[in-house]
């Protein structure tokens, strides 16, 4: 594996291999007073974020440090990007400084793929290779989020194959939804997108999932429900009448959570808008695995770095 750009680059064996590696790394760290593994000693990992982030950026940094890599953070606001430097020149600069892996989040869909193409071309000339990890590109994909969600579902449900997973809310602007649909389908799950028609992307009928506008009707048949963040910063128009109406139709209230089967799991990629997307009591309930997603994010991202930089088998 040279890069991780999209979940569509992974077949079921590769995806399960990453999840299995994450499990082994988690076990390797259990009971350690100092959570350090020497696996990536001497490697340099750079996070380059053009959009704000808490969970993804910090978990990648922790993942690198727990594996003894040298980790460096670059943000658009504090770099030459704010002076007008192009993405191409920034990538060349980081590669010239010896970056073994660049983790990028960018508002433009396809930015990570562009960086990977440049990295491959530069490698043929310089003989040194820089791996690219897509940490979210526009409304396109967020592959490591889908992997950590899959890891959480495996922990809670035992398996993903044959399970029915509902993804609820702002699918139109959600790279998390797109990555989850394709990865969960690859792993054998049945995925149901539940959203108002105004928050569904063009071409969603070509995705490997079913679409429904009725949340209440779907909840009793779900093994897990993932509530999505309403991405107001990407909305340039009225996609629903009001926050209150959205909460009434698509928010996960206590009454709606009671419709779920006893074993069902509640997920949210965060940050949550409590009271609109999900009731605080549901977010903090035992069936919610939201903090487990965060914890799994570190181990999954350790696994990704391991497969990219330590020469793990395909």
From TrEMBL:
Signal peptide: none
Coiled-coil zones: none
EC number: 2.1.3.2
Keywords from the named record: Pyrimidine biosynthesis, Transferase
Keyword Glycoprotein included in the entry's annotation: no
Enzyme class, spelled out: transferase
Single GO molecular function: amino acid binding
Domain Aspartate/ornithine carbamoyltransferase carbamoyl-P binding residues, every copy: 2-154
Domain Aspartate/ornithine carbamoyltransferase Asp/Orn-binding: 162-308
GO BP: 'de novo' pyrimidine nucleobase biosynthetic process; 'de novo' UMP biosynthetic process; amino acid metabolic process
PROSITE patterns xref list: CARBAMOYLTRANSFERASE (PS00097)
Annotated positions binding L-aspartate: 83, 175, 229
Amino acids binding carbamoyl phosphate: 55-56, 105, 142, 145, 270-271
Biological pathway: Pyrimidine metabolism; UMP biosynthesis via de novo pathway; (S)-dihydroorotate from bicarbonate: step 2/3
Superkingdom per UniProt: Bacteria
Catalytic reaction list: carbamoyl phosphate + L-aspartate = N-carbamoyl-L-aspartate + phosphate + H(+)
GO cellular component, one term: cytosol
Keyword Disulfide bond belongs to the record: no
Family named by the database record: Belongs to the aspartate/ornithine carbamoyltransferase superfamily. ATCase family.
Task performed by this protein: Catalyzes the condensation of carbamoyl phosphate and aspartate to form carbamoyl aspartate and inorganic phosphate, the committed step in the de novo pyrimidine nucleotide biosynthesis pathway.
Known partners and oligomeric status: Heterododecamer (2C3:3R2) of six catalytic PyrB chains organized as two trimers (C3), and six regulatory PyrI chains organized as three dimers (R2).
Family matches, as PANTHER family: ASPARTATE CARBAMOYLTRANSFERASE, ORNITHINE CARBAMOYLTRANSFERASE, MITOCHONDRIAL
HAMAP family reported for this sequence: Asp_carb_tr
NCBIfam families listed in its UniProt record: asp_carb_tr, PRK00856.1
Protein name per Swiss-Prot or TrEMBL: Aspartate carbamoyltransferase
Organism, scientific name: Pseudonocardia bannensis
């Amino acid at each position: 594996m040279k890069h991780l750009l999209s979940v569509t680059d992974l077949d079921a064996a590769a995806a399960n291999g990453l999840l299995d590696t994450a499990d082994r790394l988690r076990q390797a760290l259990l009971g350690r007073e100092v959570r350090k593994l020497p696996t990536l000693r001497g490697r340099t990992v750079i996070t380059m974020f053009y959009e704000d982030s808490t969970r993804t950026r910090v978990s990648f940094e922790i993942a690198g440090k727990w594996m003894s890599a040298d980790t460096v953070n670059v943000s658009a606001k504090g770099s030459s990007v704010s002076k007008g430097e192009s993405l191409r020149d920034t990538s060349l600069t980081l590669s010239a400084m010896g970056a073994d892996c660049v983790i990028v989040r960018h508002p433009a869909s396809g930015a990570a793929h562009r960086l990977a193409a440049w990295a491959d071309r530069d490698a043929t000339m310089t003989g040194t290779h820089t791996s690219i990890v897509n940490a979210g590109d526009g409304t396109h994909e967020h592959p490591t989020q889908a992997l950590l969600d899959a890891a959480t579902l495996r922990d809670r449900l035992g398996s993903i194959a044959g399970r029915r997973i509902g993804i609820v809310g702002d699918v139109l602007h959600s790279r998390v939804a797109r990555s989850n649909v394709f990865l969960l389908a690859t792993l054998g799950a049945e995925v149901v997108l539940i959203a108002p028609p105004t928050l569904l992307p063009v071409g969603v009928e070509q995705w490997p999932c079913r679409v429904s506008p009725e949340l209440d009707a779907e909840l009793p048949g779900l093994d897990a429900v993932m509530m999505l963040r309403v991405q107001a910063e990407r909305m340039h128009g009225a996609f629903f009448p009001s926050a209150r109406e959205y909460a009434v139709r698509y928010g996960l209230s206590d009454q709606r959570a009671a419709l779920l089967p006893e074993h069902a799991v509640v997920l949210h990629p965060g940050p949550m808008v409590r009271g609109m997307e999900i009731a605080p009591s549901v977010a903090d309930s035992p069936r919610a695995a939201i903090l487990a997603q965060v914890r799994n994010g570190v181990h999954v991202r350790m696994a990704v770095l391991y497969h990219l930089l330590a020469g793990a088998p395909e």
